[in-house]
Inverse folding.
């Protein structure tokens, strides 16, 4: 048990280091110079540009820059914005709670709706509930969030006036974005839970349980569901990462504060350190979430617990 | 292509199952969805190939006498602030949108499939190295990676395709590797090796043809995902500013007029959803078809 936890911790750390190198490499290889947007080439002399490049350290060879970057990350320095020299990490830390709230609310919507409809769909297979749930699931994975978000604004803000269309203060502003993003997640969960429930139901031990006279309710909810939940937990873990990334679009649609907004603004402004910082930050969060999900298996699945 | 043992066994099993099942299957809701999905895809494909036959107006035609009109018989989807007929713009816009979807799946699938096949077939340290890199790539959510690449390269149709393609590579690579690994250990492959076939021949004649179906199914479903990612990039402003906007760009242009003209945003989004939905329905059916375990679960 302890051995497994240690091993997973070390792997996660390696993955984070890997993503750091990767993010740095991708942005290093891609064309475009950080000084392009900082000075007007027609005004600045080559010396000024060279000076600026030296100040930023981008005249150094690749490995020196990488080591430098790595060193500053270890010290908690994610770099400075090229636009206004604001340090990146405090900026992320300031907006992260808003993104975290949106991600959390979206995951909550996904899991609640997804589990409920997925289970009902499998139990009433080919019935009316099944068909409705499958249609909802299909729409969930097929609608772009920027469209479902706009539809929600049209209906619930502009027409009915129930919830605000933008902003990030108070729980009311969270409802529509969480619904827009959560619909996607519930689509994935409905389909997954339905499939894995149907798979479990067709197994031998369910026949045994039924033949020994156990009530259908108990067969479904105590035995089938618990076995079908294991893949659902994995999926939820993956979903947290997807929801986190999905905030890029949703925060723009609803004009919310958050790290998704920061990165899309930074990309438009070609503010490289901010882009690097946010991607790296998301990768770290994503890896940590996956680690937690892996460890949680040991709690819900006795087979995993005993095998380690 | 399909004379391999595995395919034959699966086929024989399926024939037995078919013989056991009643001859005429009931026409279910899933079949209805499938037919509707096929019709939608055909229609959108027709829009992309011969838009001039379908669109009632030229997509660039600006009429000052019909600005911001609500949907009506004359303008099915209404008109925008330039007096363009939204239906016509959506019909012509299908070209770029579909191009992004198909081209990025082609590029991403080929790249990912090659990497995965190489990794799985070579094994050893090559496999370990590639898969570790893949794991790392997978920790960066696809849309962020696509956003970073498209943002750094600048807005262009080609760059969006490249960004969406690269962000899908790790997924394809993982699936292809898993399949190649499983085929590699099958008896008919070992038999071929033992009678002295060269590694390249074994790969080309036996492993590859038997490993393709999961990748193809994934690519079919991937068209929907790619269109979603691509239109998301367009929506965020990394789209191509062309005379005829693609669906994502059109939608983002309409955002400023949400209170005055709901139709400008609504219909391009409906086009994206309808197409992606249809691709997903067909992709689901394909996946069920190729997955013997799931045959009974339709």
């Amino acid at each position: 048990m302890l051995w497994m936890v240690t091993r997973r911790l070390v792997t996660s750390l390696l993955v984070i280091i890997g993503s750091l190198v990767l993010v740095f490499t991708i942005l290093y290889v891609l064309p475009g110079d950080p000084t392009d947007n900082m000075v007007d080439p027609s005004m600045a002399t080559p010396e000024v540009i060279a000076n600026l490049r030296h100040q930023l350290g981008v005249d150094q060879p690749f490995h020196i820059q990488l080591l430098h970057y790595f060193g500053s990350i270890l010290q908690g320095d994610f770099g400075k914005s090229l636009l206004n020299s604001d340090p990146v990490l405090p900026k992320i830390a300031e907006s992260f709670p808003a993104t975290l709230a949106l991600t959390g609310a979206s995951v909550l919507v996904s899991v609640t709706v997804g589990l409920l409809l997925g289970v009902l769909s499998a139990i009433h297979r080919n019935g009316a509930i099944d068909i409705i749930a499958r249609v909802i699931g299909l729409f969930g994975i097929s609608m772009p969030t920027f469209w479902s978000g706009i539809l929600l604004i049209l209906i619930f803000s502009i027409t009915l006036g129930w919830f605000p269309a933008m902003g990030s203060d108070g729980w009311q502003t969270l409802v529509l974005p969480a619904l827009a993003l959560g619909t996607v997640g519930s689509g994935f969960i409905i389909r997954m839970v339905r499939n894995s429930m149907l798979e479990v139901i067709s197994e031998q031990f369910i026949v045994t349980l039924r033949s020994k006279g156990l009530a259908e309710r108990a067969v479904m909810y105590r035995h089938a569901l618990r076995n079908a939940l294991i893949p659902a937990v994995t999926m939820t873990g993956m979903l947290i990462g997807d929801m986190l990334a999905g905030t890029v679009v949703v925060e723009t649609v609803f004009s919310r504060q958050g790290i998704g907004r920061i990165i899309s603004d930074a990309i438009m402004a070609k503010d490289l350190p901010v882009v690097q910082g946010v991607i790296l930050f998301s990768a770290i969060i994503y890896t940590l979430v996956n680690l937690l999900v892996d460890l949680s298996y040991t709690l819900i699945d006795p087979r995993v617990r005993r095998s380690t | 292509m399909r004379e391999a043992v595995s395919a034959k066994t699966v086929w024989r099993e399926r024939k037995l199952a078919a013989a056991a099942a009643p001859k005429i299957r009931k026409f279910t809701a899933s079949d209805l969805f499938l037919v509707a999905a096929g019709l939608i895809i055909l229609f959108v494909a027709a829009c992309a190939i011969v838009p001039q036959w379908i669109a009632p107006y030229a997509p660039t035609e600006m009429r000052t006498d019909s600005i911001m009109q609500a949907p009506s018989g004359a303008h099915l989807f209404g008109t925008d602030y330039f007096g363009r007929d939204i239906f016509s713009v959506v019909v012509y816009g299908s070209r770029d949108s579909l191009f992004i979807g198909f081209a990025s799946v082609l590029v991403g699938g080929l790249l990912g499939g090659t990497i995965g096949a190489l990794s799985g077939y070579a094994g050893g340290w090559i496999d370990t190295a590639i898969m570790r890199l893949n794991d790392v790539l997978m920790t960066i959510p696809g849309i962020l990676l696509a956003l970073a690449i498209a943002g750094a390269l600048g807005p262009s149709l080609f760059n969006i395709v490249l960004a969406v393609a690269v962000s899908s590579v790790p997924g394809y690579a993982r699936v292809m590797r898993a399949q190649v690994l499983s085929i590699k250990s099958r008896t008919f492959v070992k038999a071929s090796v033992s009678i002295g076939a060269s590694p390249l021949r074994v790969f080309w004649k036996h492993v590859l043809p038997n490993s393709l179906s999961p990748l193809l199914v994934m690519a079919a479903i991937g068209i929907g995902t790619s269109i979603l990612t691509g239109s998301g990039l367009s929506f965020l402003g990394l789209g191509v500013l062309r005379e005829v906007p693609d669906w994502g760009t059109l939608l983002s242009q309409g955002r400023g007029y949400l209170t005055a003209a709901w139709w400008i945003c609504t219909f391009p989004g409906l086009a994206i959803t309808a197409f992606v939905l249809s691709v997903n329905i067909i992709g689901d059916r394909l996946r069920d078809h190729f997955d013997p375990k799931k045959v009974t679960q339709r």
About this structure: Chain A has a mean pLDDT of 82. Chain A touches chain B through 54 residues (CB under 8 Å).
